Prior knowledge:
This protein has no helices and 11 strands. The chain has strands at about 5, 10-15, 20-25, 35-40, 45-50, 60, 70-75, 80-85, 90-100, 115, 120-124. The strands form 2 sheets. Strands 2, 4, 5, 6, 9, 10 and 11 form a 7-stranded mixed β-sheet that branches. Strands 1-3-8-7 form a 4-stranded antiparallel β-sheet, with no helix packed on it. The model has no long low-confidence stretch (mean pLDDT about 95).
Amino acid sequence: QVRLVESGGGLVQAGASLKLSCVASGRTFSRNAMGWFRQAPGKEREFVIAVSYSGASTYAIDSVLGRFFISRDNAENAVYLQMNSLKPEDTAVYYCASAPTEGWGIEEDDYDLWGQGIQVTVVS
């Protein structure tokens, strides 16, 4: 079964850091772009950050630029989201997603496999 499993979420104070992990299983993802999305309470799911298949190209939304960093380890079939200087507005369920392409996209339709999501809560 092909799946993505997120881990590393939790409740933290504003200003803290968290690192989310997403491990893929069932096949290799070394030729797939990977992304992270999030859905805050009462809001639509939004794109956050993505990385190309090689890790050479990344893209992040303005609100997390300079605070969130994405990386991947193709040997481990894993992608990571390092979140620094967390703010209460970063509170959301975070989803890992895999694209059928080598390059990243910013729309949900650019991704065809999703994790189950993991809660990140930031309190002030």
